[in-house]
Amino acid sequence: MNRHRVLTLVLLGCVLQPPAPGLAAPVSTIDADAEQKTLVDRLVLDRATTLATAEKRAFDRERTLLAQLDERDKQLRRSLAQRKQSEADAASTRAELLHVTAERERLVADIAARDATYRAELAEYRRIIASLASSPSAERRQDLARYADGDRIGAFPVLEARTRAEEAAREKANKLKAAEEYRQLAALAADMKDRGEKTTDEVVRLWQAAAERDPGDLWTWIFLARLHQEAGHTVEAGDAAARALHAATQPRDRSVALNTLGDVQVAAGDLAAARKSFEDSLQIDRRLAAANPGSAEAQRDVSVSLNQLGDVQVTTGDLVAARKSFEDSHQILTRLAAANPGSAQAQRDVSISLNRLGDVQVAAGDLAAARKSFEDSHQIRTRLAAANPGSAEAQRDVSVSLNRLGDVQVAAGDLAAARRSFEDS
After folding, report:
1. Residue 283 within a domain
2. Given pLDDT bands bounded at 50, 70 and 90, which one contains residue 20?
3. Numbers of helices and strands, H then E, in the chain
4. DSSP alpha helices (H): ranges in 195-250?
C-alpha cells in the first residue's frame, strides 16, 4: 500500500469513525454509541456512493461496483429487518453485510485518495449527520434511521417539520427568558419610580418590552394598565386591562383582571361598564370562597371586590346597594380579624371597612349609624397605635378617624364632641 493511500485511509477513518473514548463507558452507553456510529457510517457511505455516481467522481468500474454493493447492502438489511431467518442464517447475513460495508469503505477510500474535494465534502457531511444522530431528541434520531433505511421521501419532510418546530420552540424560550429579565428590570424601575428616581413612562417602557416578548403574561398587562392609568393614558390603560383579561386562564386571575378593568373604566367615566366588571369579579370570588371556606385569601378577595363594587355604586348614586356591599365586606373582614386576633393588618382592614361604611351612611343621611361606625373604627385604631407607638402610620390613622368622627358630629349638631375630636386629632 503506497504512502498516499495510507494517509487517505487515516483521513477517511476520521470521517467514518468517531474518536476513541478516554474512559470506559457503561454497556448501555457503549451500545448506544455503537448504534449511533453504525447509523452515521451508513449515511456517510450512502452519500459517498451518491457523490461518486451523480458527479462522476469515480472511474466507471468503481461506480458500477459501488452501485452493486449499495444494492446488496439494502438487500441484506431488508433480510435482517424481516427477522424470518434462522439464527445461523442471520449470522451469515450479518457477516456478509460486514464484508459489503468493508468493500464500500475501501472503494470510497480509493476515490478520496484521488479527490481532496470529495474527501472534504464527506468529512463535512459526517460532521452534520453525526450532530443529527446525537440529537437529544429521540424522535429526530428515529426520523434519521427511517431516512437511512431508504424512506427518504417520508422521513425528510418529518425532519424538516421537526426542525421548524424546534426552532420555533427555541425562539419562544429565548423570548420568554428575555421577558422575565425585562420584568425583573421593570420591578426594580418601579421601586426607583416610587423613590422619585425614574418616571412612569420609563417603567412603562420596560413592561412593554416584556409584553412584546411574552404577551400571555397576566401580571405584565395588569401592571401596564395601572401605570398607564397613573400616567393618564386612558386608551392604553383600557387596552392593557383588556389584554390582561384575555390572558387570564384561571378563575382568580380573571377576577383580578376584571377588577383592574373596572378601575380603568371608572377612570374613563364608564361607570356602567365598571359596575358590570366588578359584579362579574365578585361572582367569581364568591364561587371560589364557597368552594374553599377555610381560605382567608379567598374570603378577603370577596371583600376587595365588594369594596370596589361599593365605590362605583356610591359614584352612581345607588347608596342602598353600596351600603349593602360595604356591610357584607365589613362582616367578612370582621370574621377574618376574629380568626387572627394577633394580626394588626386584619384589625386595620376592619377599621377601613368601618370608615367606608360610615361614609356611605353619611351620604344616605343616617348620621347615627355613621357616628357608630366611625367611633368603632377610632377605637380599633387607638388600640393599634397604643400597641405600636413608633408607627407613624398608626398615629396618622388615629388622626384620620378623629377627623371623620368630628365631621359627622358636626353634621349631627354635637359641636362640643366635634371640637374634642378635632382637638385630639
Report:
1. no
2. very low
3. 18, 0
4. 200-213, 218-231, 234-247
For the residues 46-50, what does the mean pLDDT come to? 86
48 in any annotated domain? yes
Domain final residue pick, 150, 171, 192: 150
Q: Please give the residue range of the domain that contains residue 93.
A: 3-150
Contacts of 378 (CB under 8 A, 6+ apart): 398, 401, 402, 405
Place of cell 362640643: 416
For 285, counting Cβ atoms within 10 Å of its Cβ (0-12 exposed, 13-18 middle, 19+ buried), the class is buried
182 in any annotated domain: no
Q: What is the mean pLDDT of residues 10-27?
A: 45
Closest alpha carbon to 381 in 408, 399, 403: 399
Give 14-37 as a DSSP string.
HHHSPPPPSS---HHHHHHHHHHH
The lowest-confidence range among 5-14, 150-159, 209-218, 263-272 is: 5-14
Domain membership flag for residue 259: no
The residues, any chain, with a CB within 8 Å of residue 158's CB and separated by 6 or more, are 143, 146
26-30, 89-93, 246-250, 322-326: lowest mean pLDDT where? 26-30
CATH code: domain of residue 384: 1.25.40.10
Residues 170, 172: Cα–Cα separation, whole Å: 5
Q: Confidence class of residue 28 from pLDDT cuts 50, 70 and 90?
A: low
Question: What is the total count of domains within the chain?
Answer: 2
What does each C-alpha distance from 66 to 54, 62, 124, 151, 417 come to in angstroms?
Answer: 12, 6, 21, 20, 111
What's the pLDDT score for residue 243? Answer: 97
Q: Which of 89, 122, 150 is the last residue of a domain?
A: 150
